[in-house]
Amino acid sequence: GASSAHNKNDFLECLNLQFQKSNSESDSIYTPQNASYSSILQSSIQNLRPASNSRQRPLVIITPDHESQIQAAIYCSKKYGIQLNVRSGGHDYEGLSYTSQTPFIIVDMRNLRSISIDTEKNTAWVQTGATLGELYYTIAEKCKTLAFTAGVCSTVGVGGHFSGGGYGMMSRKHGFAADHIIDAKLIDANGQIHDRESMGEDLFWAIRGGGGTSFGIVVAFKVKLIVIPETVTVFNVTRTLDQNATQIVHRWQYVADKIDENLLIRLFLRSINSSNGKRTIGAFFTSLYLGPVDDLLPIMQEKFPELGLVKEDCTEMPWIESILFFAGFQGQSRDVLLNRTPVSAYFKGKSDYVKQPIPEYGLESIWKFLNEEDVNRAEFEFSPYGGIIDEISESEIPFPHRSGNIYMIHYVVSWSEEENAESKRHINWIRKLYGFMARYVSKSPRDAYFNYRDLDIGMNKIEGNTSYKQASVWGFKYFNNNFRRLVHIKNKVDPTNFFRNEQSIPPVSLW
Ligand code: FDA
């Protein structure tokens, strides 16, 4: 209404003034009147579904190339009561970095993406606007035996990914991205810039898995790099129902979390057309072994002969080539890792944790669900845990899903623009599936992975204060008992709830 238009003008005036004060160019401020506003807005939107449902567009997009511009954005949005959303890679499953139910602005970190690597100390400072692809590329340019453990998709942003966990193909050996953060640069709700020492261990703990959003704007993370062998081995083996997929998947559940931690066998399941034109289930075993093929084969022969892996299925390569392999860029130049434009889609995703193997008849019911959706629309990913994940305490960082979990399930259903009118059908399908799966997965709480954000599991109130009880509905699923400490820290560092969204930690006092 009129008052929000009024606010908007005052806000813009405030912003320009603050920029002038710090001698900043105002060409990093985009309003809808600006010709590049739409392309900037859309360029890193990975999931088109939230954007297509959203009635609000950001009043302003700011693409800071200096911290003072972030401070200006915080100062002015606080002054005029406008919500501030931060976007790094734009891969949020519910689009929370670029949509909102109330008037908002976006601070888009794209220009703050420098990466500096110290090959003596094996550390790196990574600005949050960098993508995983840029990080992997830059490390590989510097050194063949250094790497980092994080996600598979190269356009995912460091800002959201690191602050929520970060699982990848080396996680059984090296854990999550967040496990390796050793320092950070953060701007708080008062516009103050902190490093680890000045923010204190509580706040530093919170941003390593508790989501950056609730606590401030993370400008950069310092991480410990990991040492890897010069040669790794990858394989991708598919089994259909005729090839005993059900029995092999069933068996996988007894092997995947216990096998040598240098080996991670991830499993993708899709309904596909078989060569005779009939529907079948394709079980795609996609794996990384940190070592040569001759070491891998005896391990597979002893622990998982049912898969029938042979040498011809395997390829040895440097680690950076395995990044291309898993991201679907096999055979292409490494430069594709520098391409920041995501392959956008309309999708809905959900997650679950499995602590007891699912019986064969359970798997068969799951195949029925997969066959209900169109071919190649729906996919399950079974991501094995175990290895070092079992050895890290549940409260080490806010990401709590450690020992006791065999694997995480990621469900996703996607559709095209033409089909978007039918999005309800797909969303109902995945919700029904999720309801069915309750019997096979973790209970009280039903755990979920924060980085696979799902607003179905609970939300804050849009207007007014969210109670501890209300936020507990989703909070315990993502963070288990770490949720209480996150609330306590939020209450200390951002009591007015400046940094907020539909699933941010509420600042209520528990003590
Ligand atoms: P985006 O910019 O949308 O931010 C996500 C959230 O973090 C938002 O709430 C945002 O406000 C907040 N935020 C972002 N930058 C911030 C900053 N600098 N300071 C404070 N808050 C900030 N996960 C995984 O573990 N392993 C994987 O292999 C994959 N693969 C994958 C593939 C694809 C295609 C998608 C869409 C997603 C994944 N993910 C994943 C999930 C991914 O880890 C998750 O979506 C991250 O939050 C994305 O981070 P972005 O910075 O890209 O998102």
Automatic annotation (TrEMBL):
Cofactor(s) the protein requires to work: FAD
Domain named FAD-binding PCMH-type: residues: 54-228
InterPro entries: BBE (IPR012951), FAD-bd_PCMH (IPR016166), FAD-bd_PCMH-like_sf (IPR036318), FAD-bd_PCMH_sub1 (IPR016167), FAD-bd_PCMH_sub2 (IPR016169), Oxid_FAD_bind_N (IPR006094)
Pathway linked to the protein: Alkaloid biosynthesis
Domain of life, source organism: Eukaryota
Alphabetized UniProt keyword annotations: Alkaloid metabolism, Disulfide bond, FAD, Flavoprotein, Glycoprotein, Signal
PROSITE patterns noted in UniProt: FAD_PCMH
Family to which the UniProt record says this protein belongs: Belongs to the oxygen-dependent FAD-linked oxidoreductase family.
Protein name (database record): FAD-binding Berberine family protein
Gene source species: Forsythia ovata
Lineage of the species this protein comes from: Eukaryota, Viridiplantae, Streptophyta, Embryophyta, Tracheophyta
